[in-house]
Records
---
Amino acid sequence: MKAIAIEAFGSAEQLKEVEMAKPSIKEHQVLIEVHAFSINAIDWKRRSGKMGGKLPLVLGGDVAGIISEVGAMVTDLKPGDRVFANAARTYAEFTKARAEVTAKIPDNLSFEEAASIPLTGQTAWEALVEQGQLQAGEKVLIHAGAGGVGSLAIQIAKHFNAYVAATASEKNQEFLTSLGVDRFIDYRNEDFEHVLTDFDLVLDPIGGKTQEKSFSVLKKGGRLISLVQEPDQEKAASLGITGTYFSMSPTGERLQKLAQLLAYEAIKPIVTQTYTFTQEDLRKAHEQIETGHTRGKIVIKVN
């Protein structure tokens, strides 16, 4: 099968087309014929060597496609099913995934739309609903609202009837307003910590000074959920708030919940750029995600 791999850490130029054997699956896994996969920030960080890893390396974290084969212990999925999943090594024509982190794609979604969901969608859901314990009517601040996680987090928060403030650049104001944001903040020209107060929850995918300033917008009993670094626990305790850092662990149950929301169009995928499955396009996609200013998700169409 065709795959795109790196044989050395470095720039996007290290992404190269290779031929390799199809993966073999174990009893609790499924083999997926890849129709689309998305690009995530963690991909370029791994490519650059920031996270180590054994070379040669096929990158990737989520996928959409058709099941080609199921393991002996898989009972709820079958060959021919349209599925999306959290999986490793998805920059390929075939990939394997654990059945427990694989779910059927709603009929109203294309493969490209479905591929944009597993990693960012589950991260947004776990951050707000599981870690953040979001309740109806609460006030939520979502940083980097135009990004892959942020754009889905806004929609999930609105599904819970939350009041949502979000930070982004001015060019994304109309986009975020269309997602339901109640208070847009152009982070380049407005200091969110000076205009927001008494919030229940902050979702922080940025860290650093942004996280530090976020403490001041939370009321006593509020929660700060970070995707990037451990919040200052002494400061949190002194303010009577909770600070949590987590790394998402995928589950099929969570992915199925997202599938239901997508089926009823309570949330929608945000795919803003689609590329072909070539080393040239993969390099362009990596260069884009590496800027840190990508709206929604970048998806690669394979079949």
---
Amino acid sequence: MTESFRRSGEYEYPQGHGPQSAYPEQQQHTSSPVNPEWPPPPAYEPAQPAVAAGGGHDGHGGGDGTAVLAEVPAQPGPKRRAKGPLVLLAAVAIVAAAIGGGTAYGIQELTGKDTAVSSSSTSTNVVPSSAKGTVAGVVAAVNPSIVEINATSNAGESTGSGVIITSDGQIITNNHVISGASSIKVTTSDGKSYTAQVVGTDSKKDLALLKLQGASGLKAATLGNSDGLQVGDQVVAIGSPEGLSDTVTSGIISALNRDVTVPTDENQQQGGGGRWPFAFGGRQFNGDTGSSTTTYKAIQTDASLNPGNSGGALIDMNGNVIGINSAMYSASSDSTSSSAGSVGLGFAIPINTVKSDLATLRSGSQS
């Protein structure tokens, strides 16, 4: 945080009022036998008569707490407003900012690589300073933490995405991506394939936690703070739409706290054309959500999302994952229709919702 301080200039007393005493409070002692313009003599004879400089709040001390000696003029001249306290306040603000930045850096450095890395705000910089604020910089920093998920069930095979949150292979994704799956295969950005097991699920929040078998040394994503988001913030989405791994799109946050309703019954988990059904604003999209549903507050984005993006990351421009992409509206399942494709209406589960649910998912809860 940058503090702005206006430095005091030099001010003279208004004309007609004349010079003021160096110790105005002593003018109240009218019974003093000495001239009230001057202080009483000290108990000892100083080498030089002393007056206060630096401007303490009572006019008797320096701004830094040190008395400064100066010659007393023959006639009191115009006083100058002190600059000392303002310089001190500016220094304090600078020190406070340095301490704050150092603390954030220290916390990030002390965070173990085998646990999910979390930041206290979206200002944590995962992207190198040379590429800060660029989509390419975000992709280079975060793409190694995004995986493609292929789930096989009795109904067939579905493709989704996931986010690595620990170096030993814990993966966050949507529950609807792996619901009912008999086997799950996960492919990392470097092309390595792993078999994954379901650790825990939460259908009411549409979240699932997977664990890769035999994985180590993976790059965990940095989880940001979705409470600090604002409409208009730039974001990047990474996932595997239609099985096209490492696909990147970008846009902005177009709305916050949208009430999105999704099915919890795995028999309703896939709409027409493999699309994920959801309800919003009293209307249903991508098929019927059924009678067993749940509603959560979502981040709305115009970054292009398509089937297969589910479970992937929505990322801020500092490289923090601030949401898990979960639902997107497609006007038509007919690829030949002029209305087919992304229409800039996608939704993501806020990352703070994910973080608050991690302990439950890690406990093995299946709900």
---
Amino acid sequence: MIVGLCLGAVAVLVLGVVGIVSLNGSGSDVTNAGYQNTPTPVPSSPFELPPNNGSSTPSSEPSTSDAPSSAPSSTGPQKILKLADHPILQDPNAGLQNRVCNLPPWVSTQDGAEAFFTAASKCLDAAWGPFLQAYNLPFTSPALHFPTGPSFETECGTIQVGIATAAYYCENNLYVPFKGLQTDQYGNNPGVYLALFAHEYGHHVQEVAGIMDAAWQKIYAAGQNSPDGLDMSRRKELQAQCFSGMFLGAHVDQGGTVTRDMYNKAWNDQETRGDNTSHSHDHGTNAHYAQWWRAGARSNRIADCNTFAAPASDVS
């Protein structure tokens, strides 16, 4: 599952996205992704600032009494293996509550990145945990890992650290190898790093909800590289984009350290990444990558992230 900035007068370097899937075993919940850095021309579209209403209206979380249950109460919370008709995607007014998120200043060191992402994970837990629990879903926080070596072991296999691995999600574990972030290229831009991290956390939301399992069942049945398999992969990735946008939209301008500048830079960064950059077909075009992130950031309504109900033309 699973950043681009102008650097002076040189060409923009971009972190595109490439899904890397482990087929170890037959379980459908194995999922992981890394960002791939690939040079790309400067976007031809004008520099666009987002509207100023990304989080102006507090969103409503579903009430526990109204939220659907995935199983009898005696069995405890259970995943719901559904896609377009998943209960969390049905309420047009449901979104993340506007919250204060305080993050340490970005420092481009191993320790600085660990402190930043650890704090960001707590903000994401506070945002998504109550939302998912209201639907009687089995929320748990993902385990964070900050690999420092040339490779690291996961349940999805051995992952090589490099420009293709800025962040990696697998089986309730979120990995952020500092050397994969290319901080020498992207510098002090915490909004870009936060959007990247929130995208990977979006895959955890899908995992907890049961959306991830349901998507992989479809992908495995169709074949990963088949047209239908790639279509399902794009819908999965674009939804994680929308979830990332929701998080930033719900936390910007709330009195914490998620500033309007961070939000704006993340907003404009999205169009530099996607299948046009990575030359793949499993994440969505750069335009759609930006479109879905901005949909979540603009409205902070989870129904607007129902990529599984979208026409094929919006997830190409």
---
Amino acid sequence: MPRPRFLDPTDRGLSQLGQELLPVLYRHRLLTAGQLTQLLRPAATSTRYIRRQLEVLHGRGLVDASVRRTSRAGELLWYTTALGCEVVESGGELAPRAYRMTEDAAASQLQEHTLAVNDMGLAFVQHARRLGDECGPLDWDPEVAHRVRDGDSRLGDEAFLVPDSVLRYIHTTPTGDGGQQQQRMLLTFFCEIDRATMSIARLAAKLHAYARYARYIPQPALGRGRPKAGGYRREAWRARYPSFPRILLVLDGASQRQLTKRTDDLRALVAADARLQPAADLQAGVTTLEQLRAHGPFAPIVTPVLGDPEPTDVLLRRSAAAASVA
């Protein structure tokens, strides 16, 4: 697959790689040189060239770095500066985002969570390359807000669902006699990363939010906030997605034994709590970041949240097929 061209390579005298680095850093907030190398130059045997380009961008005030809190060797985590954000936004290739990484945010305790979200996306990208599928460096988007109820926007968490990331992936499978034809399926995922820091009850509450969004039909306000008679007839998600995205909970930050226990506890809570049964029509599964990296999304590594506990792949075959694309 050809590398996308994000900005004119002559802008600010940057190399082609420099032009590729800026949008990736802008979208994904915080990345290591190793992650950037695997995303943009997967054939490279070291991070030297990426690091050299990052230094050039740093010298021009377009990127900055923070020291990774958990690194004894002083590993740097890179992000776009305010000027770098302006350069990306002026290129018109990416939708502007209100959130911008700051020096304080880059040095905060959210470092590892942000890196884990990007490791999840990177795992999909690497396996897409191996399988001949389509998922590139910009095919996941962190913290996209989705309204789940009408009313005052100041309600914050009560009014919005904000997945850790929304990831898009085109999976190709052979069809017909001899596999000469191919079917391309657009898969969209709501991804949540848990580094063993959330309670099981909070993970279950996230499923509540997804079930609420699956059913949410916005109502136009009339007068003093009263909905217009009849209202809308379509769920809000239909304006954004061809089918309701699959929900993938990715666990990390503990031993495999502990993460398996968390998966079992979540399944038990969902099965026992009648309030969570609206989630039964959702395609939701749990895996670990280690398994996703090692085996890829189409290995039997995903445990359904509801029903049969036998691991399957991200297609969660018990449910309806994905949307087909030309």
